[in-house]
Amino acid sequence: MYRKAPKAKSIFSKYNDLLSGKLRTEKPAWFSAMEIYPVNPSVYKAPSYFETGGKLDFEKGNSSKGTSESVKASNGESFYVKPRASNKKKFLKKAKNSPQNIVYPEDRLRRNFYKKHVYETYNPVSLKQTRLENETWDGIKNSTFGLSGESVIRYQLYLINQGFSEEEAYNIATSEFYREKAAQELEIKIAAQEAQNFDSLPVAKINSLKTIEFEEEMLKISKKVISRNVQMNQSQQAANEKSFTS
């Protein structure tokens, strides 16, 4: 079975009919080229088509049902007939050798915690872990991450391994986290009040005062430079006026 005739050949014949009927008077450039080099039929064959539907009785029965069954031969022996659907390409696909995703049990706990505590994502956490031999997860303060969301997640995982449910472990870990966080903020406020009572300024104000002193020094230097430039300009103008009058 050959392919269809090329379209260029049919276009050439139709345009030739137009010229012979005097409906066209001029030959385009491609028409002259095709007169010299006519289009030849393709020698390539189309893909062959093979009938796979089956013509025997047992093949027709299996193709309609799509299930496997045992069929008796002429000699009385039964044999297994494979269904036609199992020969399709979609049933012959093999799984790709792709590595599986590495999933840790605390990943789900981490997503749940940071979804409910978005403000904790703004607190930086150092990924460098030291003193791992002395690290335990049985409390909020025992982690090397300090008082942060990671310490809550690890403490919750520890409680789950101790037999608590995920919700119970979450409530225990977060309540202890809130308590320690409140105590930490209270210590910071008390330290700030004590510093004010002893006429001590916070670090931020000390830095701002140093910045102001530095700016004042720069202003003094700039004033000296400006006054010197003004004096030089005045002396230059006086010299120019004296030379002009003389």
From TrEMBL:
Database matches in InterPro entries: Ribosomal_mS23_fun
CC terms in the record's Gene Ontology section: mitochondrial small ribosomal subunit
Pfam families: MRP-S25
Coiled-coil parts of chain: none
Main location: mitochondrion
Compartments in which it is found: Mitochondrion
Keywords annotated in UniProt: Mitochondrion, Ribonucleoprotein, Ribosomal protein
MF annotations from Gene Ontology: structural constituent of ribosome
Recorded family membership: Belongs to the mitochondrion-specific ribosomal protein mS23 family.
Protein name: Small ribosomal subunit protein mS23
